[in-house]
Structures are given as C-alpha cells and as structure tokens.
Amino acid sequence: MSDAANRPAYLDNHATTPADPRVLAAMRPWWEANFANPASIEHAMGREAEAAVEAARGHVAALIGAEPREVVFTSGATESNNLAIKGAARFAAAQSTERRRIITLATEHKCVLECVRDLAAEGFEPVVLPVRPDGLLDPEALREALATPTLLVSVMAVNNEIGVVQDIAAIAAMARGAGALFHTDAAQAAARLPLDVEAMGIDLLSLSAHKVYGPKGIGALYVRRRPRVRLAPLFSGGGQERGLRSGTLPAPLVIGFGEAARVARLEMRLDEGRAAQQRDRLLAALEAEIPGIRVNGDRERRVAGNLNLTLPGGVDAQAVMAAAPGVCVSTGSACSSASVEPSYVLRALGLPADEARATLRIGIGRFTSPAEVGRAAAELARAWHSVRHQIAAE
C-alpha cells in the first residue's frame, strides 16, 4: 500500500489545514537564502525581505477587498480578535465615550467570548445574544440589543463548529446604522467564501493563515482606514505594523500567508465545488449506514466542506473516534478540545448534553481525496455499530 493509503483520512480541516506545497516553496528561500529582518532596510537583504513582506500584504488584502495598508499582521486570529475587541474598547474608553455595550453571539469562538467577558472588569457591558436552532442570528434580537447605544458588534462570518454562514453584510449594516463598529472573525470564511470588506461594511476582520492552507503562527487584522477605526495596541514595542502590533515580523510566515491568500483567491470556487461533492458523498454514505444521523446547523447556509453530525443510539462521539483510529475528525473546536464539557456551540442550538456529546465535526478541504472520504465513511460507520453493540451488551 502507498503511504497515502496508510495515513489516517484527515477530515479536520476546521482545526487546521495542511500547508499547500506552493506555500512551502514560497517560504523556503526566506528561511535559507535571505533570512534578513524586514525592518532592516539599511541594507539590501533587509530591503528585499521588506519588499516580499509588502507583496504578501497585498495578496492578503486582495483576498478580502482591502487596501494593503489596512492589513496588520499578527500571530493568528486569536490575537487579531483580542486586538480588535479590546483595542477598540480601550481606545474608546480613553476618549471617554459613553458607549459601553459590546454585543456578540453565544456561538462565537472562545477567544471572542472571553474578550468580551474580560472587558466587563473594565466597565463595559457584555451582551451575548442567543442564536436560532439553525445556528443563525435572529436579526430582531440584534435590533433590540442595539436599542442601547453600542460600541462594538462582533459576529463570526462562518462558525468553526457547525459551518453556518451568517449574513454579515446585513448584520454590519445594522451595527453601523446604530453607530457601532462591526468586527467579524473570518478565520473560517476566508478561502471558502468571497469577502469584500468595503461592500460588506466591515470595520475590523480577523484572519488566520493556517485555516487557508498557510503556515501556523501568522494571522492578520483588517483595520478600516476610511472612516478610520482607532485601536489601542495590546502591548508596547518598536512600533511595527502602524504601531498596532510591535515585534519583528516573521518574514517566512508572512510570505507563506501571502502565497496562501493568492492561491485561495484563484482557486476558491474550484475548492468549494469539490468540497461540496465530497461532503454530499460522505453524508449519503453515513446516512445509509447510520439511520437517524442528523446534521446540525442550517442545511443551506453553510460552507461546502462542513458536516456537524449527531450520532443516534446514545453513543459517545469520543468512543466512536477511539474506535475509528484511521479517521481524523473532532468533536468541536480544537481550542476547546481539552474541555470535558459538551460543546457550548451545540448547547446554544438547544441540543441536550447527551446529544452534544454524540456529535462529530467533519471538515473537508482542498486536499481531501475521494479515497479518504470512502475510507472515512466506512470506518466511522463500523465504529458506530461497534460502540452500539458494546452499549447493548452492557
């Protein structure tokens, strides 16, 4: 058997995507041939590194319809979310604003929820809105929350567990119409959906390279220039990245991010079409073998590669995963995987704890092969039947 046939079927692309070979090729010279600090513009190697970083910034900006100078590089979406939310709040507080309300959703990434809750200790008012059973925001709930003067609204573009796509343009229009800034965590949306910060009315947008077939350890925050959005930096330093994110830029990672963004912009439609075919094939195979399996989240308003599936029969998803070692899937967000509690995202949809514990998150990506989908469907079905038999025998 080939090495590919011996490797587990990787269906956890929401947790991280593999680096595209083109990304690895673009990065390699900047580890070896030119390792200069891009801030060292006094010499030729530094200027060459700076030029490559700025070219990468342009590719990231093009992916979201921004100007290059509106892109601030960070270590990833978690830092970007912290800088956007805490930075906006602290700058506003320094200007003695009377707006103290910050609105988000119960299904947001953990780092967004923690940012918003942390700001309560600084005198802000966190408001965490519920979602409908399909995972989407009820516009009326947001409209009611915005009746109180609001500083910031933060809503994830694509949920990292259930894959549902929020109507970001409409939500942004509501927020800005009420005088609030609008931020979106687009880590799961970039490379999967067309994004245009200008057309969609977005003020702040977070990205992470390792969700778009780039390297880990690098991300970006879009910060609108017109009208200008002002942020307080999270930490002090040499003033890099417009003074918003001090620290030496990791040129190889930035350049890899740029290449990942360039490829994503060119191949997004092809990737999503292929992912939808693979997802539908996998779902059909599992439905045939596991009667009563259920998809969580809106069936239409979701990214192509996502399946969030509740298994019937009182099984535990962790037990099914243990019985299917040849398949890489998850039970929810990788950032919350150490928690013994059932997914808070699924609980927000109204799932009882036992059903939340019986749920798998499956993420199909650019490099998921038909052979992997076939092997995964067969092994997950076998594992479910095995666990069911063990339960019946007890």
From TrEMBL:
It comes from the Bacteria. The lineage of its organism: Bacteria, Pseudomonadati, Pseudomonadota, Alphaproteobacteria, Acetobacterales. This is Cysteine desulfurase. It is an enzyme of class 2 (transferase). InterPro entries: Aminotrans_V_dom, Aminotrans_V_PyrdxlP_BS, Cysteine_dSase, PyrdxlP-dep_Trfase, PyrdxlP-dep_Trfase_major, PyrdxlP-dep_Trfase_small. Keywords: 2Fe-2S, Iron, Iron-sulfur, Metal-binding, Pyridoxal phosphate, Transferase. PROSITE patterns: AA_TRANSFER_CLASS_5 (PS00595). It holds the Pfam family Aminotran_5. Catalyzes the removal of elemental sulfur atoms from cysteine to produce alanine. Seems to participate in the biosynthesis of the nitrogenase metalloclusters by providing the inorganic sulfur required for the Fe-S core formation. Belongs to the class-V pyridoxal-phosphate-dependent aminotransferase family. NifS/IscS subfamily. Transmembrane segments: none annotated. Its cofactor is pyridoxal 5'-phosphate.
